[in-house]
């Protein structure tokens, strides 16, 4: 299928881009500037597109992002430290983010004659983000089938929706993804902080996958305490 990949520049979406490039016809990468504090991730998406030899488009949604207040990603709210599934991680929810981005992506795909839009939503996100759950994916596909009825038929490809972050790391190794050329940290500093939910999840995923993590973390050991604390809370 001729596929457009929604790519933030993070580990998940860059891995997905490499997977699609190896298994389908990758038409290009599509990124969004929604005013996120970790906007530097877009540079890593651009690098992925250049590496894969495909176009890279960045859609400016920053005026929309400014209206989606209350999130640590788009507002003057501190990014919390700790395990990704903790209650505090709800501070990183940007309401309707995936629905907004995917609606734009489907419109662009229809205009360009693509057959699919691929997104790297995954099972580990289900705790926090409602628009990363299988029910959302199914509902969005049904909505787009109706929205584009008689004009285009586009499939939403989400191979990781029922998989874990560790599974994605394993998949990335299979497709020789240069993991150091991906950005996860929500704080957007010079180095991955090692303390926010995405950093903790990233470090744990490499550990569970049994694959060396090339990421440069400011606090490389915090993840272990965060994981222990989370497991204790579960009990």
TrEMBL record:
Signal peptide: none
Binding site for Zn(2+): 185, 193, 196, 199
Reaction catalyzed: 7-carboxy-7-carbaguanine + NH4(+) + 2 ATP = 7-cyano-7-carbaguanine + 2 AMP + 2 diphosphate + 2 H(+)
InterPro entries: QueC, Rossmann-like_a/b/a_fold
Keyword Zinc: yes
The protein's enzyme class: ligase
EC number: 6.3.4.20
Keywords carried by this UniProt record: ATP-binding, Ligase, Metal-binding, Nucleotide-binding, Queuosine biosynthesis, Zinc
Pathway annotation from the record: Purine metabolism; 7-cyano-7-deazaguanine biosynthesis
A biological process from GO: tRNA queuosine(34) biosynthetic process
Similarity comment: Belongs to the QueC family.
Role this protein plays: Catalyzes the ATP-dependent conversion of 7-carboxy-7-deazaguanine (CDG) to 7-cyano-7-deazaguanine (preQ(0)).
Protein's name according to its UniProt entry: 7-cyano-7-deazaguanine synthase
Gene, per the UniProt record: queC
